[in-house]
Amino acid sequence: MGVCSFTDYFVICSGTSERMLRALAEEAQKAAKQTHGALARGIEGEPEGGWILIDYGDVILHLFSPAVRQYYQLEELWREGRTLVHMR
Question: Residue 9: helix, strand or coil by DSSP?
Protein backbone atom coordinates (compact mmCIF):
# COMPACT_ATOMS: atom_id res chain seq x y z
CA MET A 1 0.00 0.00 0.00
CA GLY A 2 1.27 3.46 -0.89
CA VAL A 3 1.54 6.52 1.27
CA CYS A 4 -1.56 8.13 -0.22
CA SER A 5 -4.86 6.53 -1.24
CA PHE A 6 -6.03 9.16 -3.74
CA THR A 7 -2.99 9.69 -5.99
CA ASP A 8 0.33 8.13 -6.92
CA TYR A 9 2.46 11.24 -7.39
CA PHE A 10 2.67 14.84 -6.25
CA VAL A 11 4.58 17.30 -8.37
CA ILE A 12 5.42 20.36 -6.28
CA CYS A 13 6.72 23.52 -7.95
CA SER A 14 7.29 27.15 -7.12
CA GLY A 15 6.73 30.23 -9.24
CA THR A 16 8.09 33.59 -8.21
CA SER A 17 5.16 35.69 -9.49
CA GLU A 18 1.48 35.44 -10.36
CA ARG A 19 2.43 35.63 -14.01
CA MET A 20 4.85 32.72 -13.64
CA LEU A 21 2.32 30.59 -11.76
CA ARG A 22 -0.27 31.21 -14.48
CA ALA A 23 2.25 30.36 -17.22
CA LEU A 24 3.38 27.18 -15.44
CA ALA A 25 -0.24 26.04 -15.06
CA GLU A 26 -1.07 26.75 -18.69
CA GLU A 27 2.03 25.03 -20.04
CA ALA A 28 1.62 22.00 -17.77
CA GLN A 29 -1.95 21.52 -19.01
CA LYS A 30 -0.90 22.00 -22.63
CA ALA A 31 2.00 19.52 -22.32
CA ALA A 32 -0.11 16.91 -20.50
CA LYS A 33 -2.74 17.08 -23.22
CA GLN A 34 -0.30 17.05 -26.16
CA THR A 35 2.06 14.42 -24.77
CA HIS A 36 -0.31 12.09 -22.90
CA GLY A 37 -3.81 13.10 -24.00
CA ALA A 38 -4.48 13.90 -20.34
CA LEU A 39 -7.05 16.47 -19.30
CA ALA A 40 -7.23 17.80 -15.76
CA ARG A 41 -9.97 16.30 -13.61
CA GLY A 42 -10.05 19.47 -11.60
CA ILE A 43 -8.25 22.74 -11.02
CA GLU A 44 -8.28 24.63 -7.73
CA GLY A 45 -6.76 27.90 -6.62
CA GLU A 46 -5.59 31.01 -8.43
CA PRO A 47 -2.21 32.62 -9.07
CA GLU A 48 -3.34 35.62 -7.00
CA GLY A 49 -3.64 33.34 -3.97
CA GLY A 50 -0.19 31.85 -4.51
CA TRP A 51 -1.42 28.30 -5.12
CA ILE A 52 -2.80 26.30 -8.01
CA LEU A 53 -3.63 22.59 -7.88
CA ILE A 54 -4.15 20.62 -11.08
CA ASP A 55 -5.55 17.12 -10.53
CA TYR A 56 -4.81 14.44 -13.12
CA GLY A 57 -5.89 11.55 -10.89
CA ASP A 58 -2.66 9.59 -10.56
CA VAL A 59 -0.65 12.83 -10.57
CA ILE A 60 -1.47 16.02 -8.69
CA LEU A 61 0.45 19.15 -9.60
CA HIS A 62 0.89 21.82 -6.93
CA LEU A 63 2.13 25.24 -8.05
CA PHE A 64 3.02 27.56 -5.18
CA SER A 65 4.43 30.99 -4.54
CA PRO A 66 7.51 30.60 -2.29
CA ALA A 67 5.67 31.98 0.77
CA VAL A 68 2.64 29.70 0.34
CA ARG A 69 4.88 26.68 -0.31
CA GLN A 70 6.74 27.40 2.92
CA TYR A 71 3.45 27.80 4.80
CA TYR A 72 1.95 24.48 3.68
CA GLN A 73 5.21 22.47 3.69
CA LEU A 74 3.80 19.58 1.65
CA GLU A 75 7.21 17.95 1.44
CA GLU A 76 7.18 17.66 5.23
CA LEU A 77 3.53 16.59 5.40
CA TRP A 78 4.17 13.76 2.90
CA ARG A 79 7.73 12.97 4.05
CA GLU A 80 6.98 9.22 4.09
CA GLY A 81 6.75 9.37 0.31
CA ARG A 82 9.80 8.86 -1.84
CA THR A 83 11.31 11.82 -3.68
CA LEU A 84 11.93 10.87 -7.30
CA VAL A 85 13.43 14.15 -8.52
CA HIS A 86 14.39 17.30 -6.65
CA MET A 87 15.43 20.32 -8.69
CA ARG A 88 16.31 23.88 -7.69
Answer: strand
